[in-house]
Structure of Glutamine--fructose-6-phosphate aminotransferase [isomerizing]:
Amino acid sequence: EKGGYPHYMLKEIYEQPWVLENTLGGRLHEESANVELGLDLDLTRFDRVHVIACGTAFYAGWVGKYLIEELARLPVEVDVASEYRYRNPVVDERTLAVVISQSGETIDTLEALREAKRRGAASLGVINVKGSSITRETDATLYIHAGPEIGVASTKAYVAMLAAMEMLALALGRARGTLDAETARGLLGELRKLPRLVEEALERRPVVAHVAEKYHQATDFLFLGRHVQSPTAYEGALKLKEISYIHAEAYPAGEMKHGPIALIDPRLPVVVLATRGPLYEKTLSNIQEVAARGGRVVAVATDGDEGIRRHAEDVIYVPEVHPLLAPIVSVVPLQLLAYETAVLLGRDVDQPRNLAKSVTVE
Ligand code: M6R
């Protein structure tokens, strides 16, 4: 049932090109320069968005914040569900609550949804499992169609959630008139490339395996990124923690000098998301700051960026894509890094200690 793979997690990582085909399938429409999501919601009536989720789904929501603010010019707040429930959020009938969940059963997310609804929000679920509890309580559901995810460490559901959030941001932008047809068509074209680009990213596994071999004895890892790649850094750290039990922290790269830079020493591998985009130069400066203090930089960089080799000890290349879509391609080597490291350490990849696939108790 693992399709010849030693673990479900690896099988699910390799399913990602196909999963993206499924998530995007039939939903991209170049003629209207829009997406068809079949949502029974008037997307023009909202003046703010609250995104609520846990764990990996929360990181997908965090990427969604950048996308919705950029494309739809709506203010977005993102919360982990266990905080949202108890924080007295400011909500009214012009608030759209977007709850993201693979299982659709996470109790904190379900309770946060109920709280948002009680306060008058309209609700949209971004969900994998059909007919799950959350889907029965939202006003509309955007299914991510990732297929069953068995590995406790979420992988394919994450890229599917990201693709869904891209489409939601595009739909909101078109509905609100903040996203012109030409820009929208450009993004649709980039979305269509994703399955192939993720396939290409998977082919870089030998490079990732080499990095894992080199650093699997480290006791700590730091992950850095900026803008949409900040959540990618957090997701990379979460994957590594969950299945290898190595302590890993993530920061938006610009925060480094406000504290975490004190941790840098030659024993600390620092994984930096340094793909091409508007903040590339700033990220490069962060890499130089780490390298100057003896930190070991592993950069995730865009194909063709030879210059980065001058600053980073190891470089994992990923295919070029629109900067707003970069998280979908860049998370692949981070998933593989966690996987390869956990295998080298002899961990139980599919059933990591203390974790359950869906958290249905508070
Ligand atoms: O089923 P959900 O998407 O609601 O689950 C949320 C988190 O529990 C989940 O993403 C968790 O963090 C995973 N173990 C991450 O790999």
About this structure: The longest helix spans residues 181-202. Residues 54-57, 101-103, 106, 109, 152-154, 242, 355, 358-359 surround 5-amino-5-deoxy-1-O-phosphono-D-mannitol (CB under 6 Å). The chain has a mean pLDDT of 96.
